[in-house]
Specification:
- This protein is α+β, with helices and mostly antiparallel strands.
- It has a single domain, classed as Aminopeptidase.
- It contains 6 helices and 8 strands, in the order E-E-H-H-H-H-E-E-E-H-E-H-E-E.
- It has an 8-stranded mixed sheet with strand order 1-2-3-4-5-6-8-7, with helices on both faces.
- The protein is globular, with a radius of gyration of 15 Å.
Length: about 170
């Protein structure tokens, strides 16, 4: 159960006090380029995003995007978790880290922990991941945790193809 601990990370539920990390992630140029521009620009909008996104998902599904923090000092590094989307048959793995946390293996460590949690604690039969085909860094993370490229698919609300991993 949550929180999830790895050798270097703590994955925990977001709270309304986590607006700074949410703003940082959602306004990062790479997040906007490879995921989406959520239009979240203020602390009030970040709280709204948390209320209607991760916090609502915890209540409705018992899972969602979780805050990824460094275990040694609690510094929030980004988000990672399991997402159940309306109209989609499978739970998917999602993650995004702040720029200063990239290249340290944190994304791989957090993604592996979420995948393991989904399989063991939640007994999910299938977990997938959707990424922009141009996002080689995310593809590398997914491949490092044993997920395999399945091909290109249409993803609701996204123009162009999306790479599917399982």
């Amino acid at each position: 159960m949550l929180p999830i601990r790895t050798p270097r990370l703590l994955l925990r539920e977001f709270t309304l006090e986590d607006t700074a990390v949410v703003l940082g992630v959602l306004n990062d140029a790479d997040f906007i380029r490879f995921v989406a521009d959520r239009g979240v620009r203020s602390h009030a909008q970040a709280q709204d995003y948390l209320r209607h996104g991760p916090l609502a998902s915890y209540r409705q599904h018992g899972l969602g995007l979780w805050c990824v923090a460094r275990l040694e000092d609690g510094l929030a590094l980004g988000m990672c978790g399991l997402i159940r989307r309306d109209g989609m048959p499978d739970v998917d793995l999602g993650y995004a880290l702040l720029p200063h946390a990239r290249g340290c293996g944190y994304a791989r460590e957090a993604a592996q922990a979420c995948l393991d949690y989904g399989r063991s604690a939640l007994q999910l039969p299938r977990i997938v991941a959707y990424i922009d085909p141009a996002n080689r860094a995310s593809a590398t993370v997914l491949e490092a945790i044993g997920m395999q490229y399945q091909g290109l698919v249409a993803f609701p609300g996204v123009a162009g193809d999306t790479a599917l991993y399982e």
